[in-house]
Every structure is written in C-alpha cells, then in structure tokens.
Write a structure and sequence with these properties.
Length: 470
C-alpha cells in the first residue's frame, strides 16, 4: 500500500509536467478569462473517474516559461495532494526534430495530505512474448521522441502524518536525458530530508557504445526514518545501503552492501558476462532477514542464509536457471528451471534438512520437500510434497506432517481474481485443521472456496487461496 503512495506522487508530478508541455505547445490565452477557461479545460481532460485534477491557472502557455498554479489531485474522499506552482524553462524549436528539450522544471511546494484511495484493479491480458534480441543489440532505449530535462527542483515535499506514520519534509533534485544529447540515456535523482537526517541518491547511465551501464544507489537514515517506515521494517532500524555497478553488459559487475540495524542486512555481488547465445548472470548473496518472517519460520533462518546461483538470459527471449542454492545451518534448497521464449515454464526445486546442534533455534529429524512447476508463466501448474518429522522451534514442537498438493490454474494469474484448482492429502497424528493451518490452508469438503477449489475427495482434502494479482 505504501509503495502505491510513491507511485501516485510520481504519476501526479509526471502528469503535471506533461500538461505543462502540452499547454505550452498548442494552447494560448492572454486574458484572465482565457486563462481560467484553459485551466478548466486541461483539468477536465486530464481527470478520470477515480482521480480529479484541478488547475487554478496556466500562465504563459506559449512562452518559454509557462507556469501552472494551485494544482490539486482528489479522489472520492477529497483532495489528497496539493502543488502551489510548477514553472518550466524550455525551448520549442527542438520539437521539429522530435526532441523535447527542457532546461529546468521548478516546483515550489507539494503537500501530500494522506494516502490516495487505490484505483479498482482492472483485468489485464497476458503479455505477449518479447521479440528476440540479436547479439550485440543496443540496450539503451530506442524512443520515438528524445527527451532531456536539464534540472529538476522540488523545494519542499511535505508528507502529512497519515502518509507514513509521522510528518516529514524533503527536497528533491534530479535530471534526465533519454537520447536528446546522445544515443544513450542517463538519469539522476536525489532526495534529502530537511527536518531530520536522511538522504537517497541514484544515478543511472546507459551507453550504446559499447553497451555500457553505470549504476550507483546510496541511502542513509537514522532509526525511525522514512525508508524503514515505507518498507514496514520491525522496530524501524537505521538504514545504510550502497549499490554500485559498472561495466559493459558483456562484463558487468555489481556489488551490494545493505544494513538495517543489527538483525537485517545483505551483502554480495553479481556479474553479467557474454556467452554464445545470450548473457550469463551469476550472483552470490549473504543475508539476514529473520525479523521479516513469521515466528514459525524466523527460527529456521535465525542465522540468515547464503544465496548463490546462475542463469542464462538468451537472445531469443528465453531464460534458464542453471542452479539456485539457498543454504544455512538448518536446510539446503536447490532449484533449476527454464522459461522458454513462448513463456512455457518448467522448474524443479528440492528442500533438504541439515543436521543441527541440540541448541539450534530450529532442528528437525526430517525435513524434505519437492516442488515441480509446469505450464506457462501466466497459467502455471504445480505439484508440492512436504515431509516434516520431529521438528522443534520457539513456536513449539511438531511431531509429524506429510502432505502432497497439486494445483492447476483455471485461468491466467494476471486476472484480478486468479483461480486455481487444488487437490491434496495430508497425513499426521494431529487434527487435519491444525496441520493445514500450519501450511496456511484449511481442510474442506470438495468445493470452490475463494481462489482455490478441491475437486477430488481425499482423506484430508486441502483448499487454499491463491495470491491476488498486484
């Protein structure tokens, strides 16, 4: 939900910038009444059923310095975002060569009063397979219109307490160039709190000669900051993140160091190298994330985990996971699979428990699992088998659990309410209801319930709910 806040804010600012450009291109008004009519026309044209845009005035729409004043966005509960003014300095002459050239955009103050009401989910069609790329294809975006924003300045972004739990004020600066001054693309964005310590800086550059990428992200804030609140991290720890990547896409190297207090963190790297028919990605990451997990799983990953793997992204659009290994002191998980260019999927994962000491937070006599996924990425079928014997953690003791579940998609998972058909059987001396609750399921008679349906009688049928599309 909180991620949507930033998407809405970004979309709102982008919409205002687009309106400013369009108004400057094609509309003119010199009288006060003309300005009111123009602002009203643009407001109505840019509004939707779920979101209303209101612009108080548009000044100098045909000049090199157009300005919008008194802007607001509202949903059915009223106004949730206000902007005092947006001023742009630009040149219209490059439009003749399909270039939007903006020297600067300056925004005075943006007030976000609360979170907007999410728009109703709309049904989406499965995405068409991406066209195959040829070896050596440029990775920089190929846009029909080139774009340059020399400087972006937002003096004050004021977040009211209902947005993230406490009031905050920030200032933002940035720039962007998508092929206007070269064949590559680059962008930068900096956000800094003005009422407390905390800053985020991002720089990205893509050059087509020779397909070189540069990436730098840093974020720092003390305990109780906005990043921790946005991510809903337990106890709101201090944040320190550094991500850097540099090199051509045939030999790219990236490194990550992220720390969130004493119990959350990740450190590792990734490389991209050219192989015969695509690019090979290898990664190695050590992380600690137990506080983010439910209590029943937190003990399993009390000492964190190491993640290693390699995948090949082929030029024809297919992807192959050679090996994926997740391991800590309690278990080892291995996975491999392939996603074809036509989105057909075939994957397999196996889980094995490891011997632990008598004082380990989690220990089990037997921990075995197997998952197979087939079908397509939009409409997958899955088979799961899980066996747990004599397991002990701070959540309690688990004597025996043996389950098999088969899930078949009734339709694409991209639908607003995806449906699956699930059949399963569990065997345990405990009651079926307690066993299924451990899996996040519940026993039921064969019937459709929510997003899942049990279609065949079993000794203990299991019906679950499929996750809804985001």
């Amino acid at each position: 939900m909180r991620g949507r806040v930033w998407r809405y804010i970004g979309a709102g600012l982008g919409l205002v910038l687009l309106i400013c450009v369009l108004a400057a291109i094609g509309l003119n008004a010199k009288t006060q009444s003309g300005k009111s009519m123009l602002a009203d026309f643009v407001s109505r044209a840019a509004s939707t059923e779920n979101m209303k845009l209101d612009i108080g005035a548009i000044e100098g729409p045909l000049s090199a310095h157009p300005m919008l004043r008194d802007i607001s966005l509202a949903d059915k509960d009223g106004v949730w975002l206000k902007i005092d003014h947006v001023e742009m300095d630009w040149s219209r002459l490059p439009l003749a060569s399909l270039r939007v050239d903006i020297d600067s955009v300056a925004i005075g103050r943006v007030d976000v009063l609360r979170r907007p009401i999410p728009a109703p989910a709309a049904a989406t069609k499965p995405a068409a397979p991406a066209p195959a790329r040829k070896a050596g294809d440029d990775m920089a975006p190929d846009l029909p219109v080139r774009f340059r924003l020399g400087a972006f300045q937002l003096d004050t972004l004021a977040l009211a307490a209902p947005v993230l739990g406490e009031p905050a004020t920030l200032t933002l600066t940035g720039s962007a160039d998508a092929g206007a001054s070269s064949n590559g693309a680059k962008a930068s964005l900096s956000a800094r709190r003005t009422d407390a310590p905390g800053a985020v800086n991002l720089e990205v550059a893509i050059s087509p000669s020779p397909n070189r990428v540069s990436l730098a992200l840093s974020a720092h804030e003390p305990a109780g900051g906005l990043i921790a609140r946005l991510a809903q991290l337990p106890d709101l720890p201090p944040i320190d993140i550094s991500l850097k990547g540099e090199g051509p896409l045939d030999n790219f190297v990236a490194k990550l160091v992220a720390q969130a207090g004493e119990e959350l963190g990740a450190q590792g790297g990734a490389t991209i190298t050219r192989v015969a028919a695509g690019r090979r990605v290898e990664f190695d990451l050590t992380s600690r994330f137990a506080p983010l997990l439910p209590k029943a799983l937190a003990d399993v990953f009390a000492d964190g985990a190491k993640l290693r793997g390699a995948a090949v992204l082929a030029d024809d659009g297919s992807a192959t996971l050679d090996n994926l290994a997740l391991e800590n002191s309690a278990l080892r998980l291995g996975a491999s699979g392939r996603l074809a260019a036509d989105q057909k999927i075939e994957a397999h994962a196996a889980l094995h428990g490891l011997p632990t000491s008598e004082t380990a937070p989690f220990r089990a006599k037997t921990l075995e699992g197997e998952l197979t996924v087939t079908g397509s990425a939009a409409q997958p079928d899955a088979k799961l088998r899980l066996l747990v014997e004599d397991a002990l953690s701070s959540a309690g003791r688990f004597g025996h659990f043996d389950a098999e579940v088969t899930a078949v998609a009734d339709g694409p998972l991209t639908e607003p309410r995806p449906r699956q058909t699930a059949t399963g059987r569990s065997r345990s001396p405990r009651s079926p209801r307690r066993n299924c609750a451990t899996m996040g399921c519940r026993p039921s008679t064969p019937r459709r319930t929510g997003g899942w349906r049990a279609i065949e009688p079993a000794s203990t049928p299991i019906s679950c709910w499929a996750p809804r599309a985001a």
